[in-house]
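Hi Y.,

Following your request, here is the sequence exactly as I used it, all 377 residues.
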Amino acid sequence: MLIINLLSGCVTTQSESGINDEYTGGVWITYSELNTILENGNLKENFNLVIKNCQSVKISDIYLHVRAFGDSIYKSEYFPLTEASKNYDYDILQYIIDECHKRGIRIHAWINPYRISNSTSDINTVSEESPAYRWLKDEDGNNDRNVSICESGIYLNPAESQVRRLIIDGIREIITKYQIDGIHFDDYFYPTTDENFDKASYDSYASEGGTLNLSDWRRANVNSLIGGCYTAIKFTDKNIIFSISPAASIEKNYENLYADAAAWMSGGCVDYIIPQLYFGFEYPLEEYKFENLIDAWVNLADANGDIPLVIGLAPYKIGETSDADKEWSEREDILARQVEYCRKNKLVIGYTFFSYSSLFSDKEQNKKQLTNIKEII
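Below is the corresponding structure, written out as tokens. Let me know if you'd prefer a different format.
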């Protein structure tokens, strides 16, 4: 039923998706970068500079981290306000949207759907207003399965319907309260392959007659969320874009993160995919060379409904000196060449840089790469 729910009622055409014909250039602004912008108390001046920098390289789309750890940069009925946002007596998300729209830049609300913490497994470090905290501290214990704790941190449990409802309600809150242009997920789905992560949920599923093995069941849980999010978004406004940014390896996504990009594409439940192709042209492993990665994703998209691709690029690697990535310190034109390569394929409709602070760094190597990008665009 989870798979059927994903595939039913999700199909859209590109003309209905809100994506126009122009080639898109994007940038991710992470929660830590946004906190830096917010913490000195001068959002308006600081974000004006962000917009000017983005305009200098024809950025059309900003992916803004609005919820990274089960908290929110805007006042929410479901999630606690981030500490940095508490410094302001006005709605910072509304301000950012308004300023970007004045200048023709689209804003996508970037959400980590499941992650509560990736630095501690101590629930007492989490805000008491967090749904994860409330569920675990519920005295009757009825909601304990909604939250999973493992060595890597604290996460909402993808298997539980209350979790999916919370995430979808949170998305519906954003798209009804704000004139947002898109909802965006990155590659944080299941944080571990350990069978103990969601053992109680899987045992319950199996005892009720479920026949999927653990891996397929986990993928079905993620698929159910993706389908539900897409349906909620398009029911509210068909022009709002829903995008997902999986890791570079299609196999790793499928086997380790339980993220089935092919199913999302064939089911028509995303408007575009932004694979994180954070590798150069000279990477020692053949399958991870940039051209081979992009070709693999193009082939996947071509075989599953021609869903468009926006390619995630890695200015954060500029200056890297490790043996595998030394070209990032030896070459000044990697990003410019990658932008050119993206433009050669009909299914690639743009590129997005990870992330803002690296793209516009004052370091000499970064500035040279940026100059070469400007010459290309």
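The radius of gyration is 20 Å.

Thanks again,
Q.
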